[in-house]
Amino acid sequence: QGTPVVLGIESSCDETGVGLVRDGRLLGHAVASSMEEHARFGGVVPEIAARAHVHAFTPVVHRALTEAGLRMSDIGAVAVTTGPGLSGALQVGLAGAKGLAYALGVPLYGVHHLAGHVAADTLAHGPLPDPCVVLIVSGGHTSLLLVRDLARDPITHLGDTLDDAAGECFDKVARVFGLPYPGGPAIDRAAREGDARAVTFPRPLTGPRDDPYAFSFSGLKTAAARWTERHRGQALPVANGAAALQEAIADVLTRKAVAACTAHGVGTLVVVGGVAANSRVRALAEERCAAAGLTLRVPPLKLCTDNGAMIAAIGDLLVRAGAAPAPLDVSIDPSAPL
Ligand code: KG4
Ligand code: ZN
Q1: Per the confidence metrics, is the pTM higher than 0.90?
Q2: Please, what are the domains in the chain?
Q3: Helix (H, G, I), strand (E, B), or coil: what is residue 18?
Q4: Which segments constitute the Gcp-like domain (predicted)?
Q5: How do residues 133-172 score in pLDDT, each as one tens digit?
Q6: Pocket of ligand 1, candidates 275, 278, 282, 302: which has the most ligand atoms within 8 Å of its Cβ, to mutate?
Q7: Which residue minimizes the CA distance to atom 6 of ligand 1?
């Protein structure tokens, strides 16, 4: 019968995502987002996110199936994010996944959200080389990982942010600059008209005695707030601030990621997560990987941000590796470690 079609479900934050993958191939996916409902609060409101998942769940499953030209009865396994993420939001996805798996009589796989982000790239570029270094940069995470066989080996944590995630920094500084939520895309857009050299922002944890793979972004937020304060009563040159902030974040992220590859003798860098959508992060990663003789892999934008295809992708890898399914009483793990 060959490998089964895996239905992947993602609901850890504000995106309800459903994807269908078989044998490493993306067959179809759909996403609904409650982002606009959170905009006026300047960040994701857990209660609103959970309610939006309940609202969107079944229609998004339907849309993904329709896009793939498949029927419910074609699903051979269900994979779902069990953590990390917002508790109420995760509960909705897991409850839906259990219902589907039980009704269809197919195995259920509980997966780690970040393993999903890593697996997303396999849908675009095929199997990951073993080993590779993965930079995960999103609103909730900023980590450098050493990845071997995604389905079999534990992921090694090389470094992590000590405070804010890079996406969180984009979002918080955007707020300080008076730009809309989510801040990352807004800063990316504003930066196009700006001059990054007009403002000097720090490069945290890049000194000779600093941990080479640790990140810190809360100081950048403070620096951006101070710079904004200095313009009180004048027009704020937002474009320059946005360009300089983006440059500082892209510089630190790519410098450390390339250093991790070099130090570990790894030839491929993979950049995933919402911030991988940033135009300057992409450009600088390309430039520096080329200079260091590294292969750079960045999945297309729609696979970079939260989606169900990435969860189906890691589910598909687990199925093909013969991993044990989850019991039907599996629980969410909101603060799941990597
Ligand atoms: O991976 P993701 O969709 O959700 C998780 O956090 O897991 O990432 C969302 C984050 C937000 O902080 C958003 O501002 C950021 O990714 N982001 C960007 C861009 N697009 C999304 N940051 C910088 N530049 C962008 N173009
Ligand atoms: Zn994510």
Answers
A1: yes
A2: 5-118+304-320 (3.30.420.40), 129-299 (3.30.420.40)
A3: strand
A4: 26-312
A5: 999 999 888 999 999 999 999 899 999 999 999 999 999 9
A6: 275
A7: 139
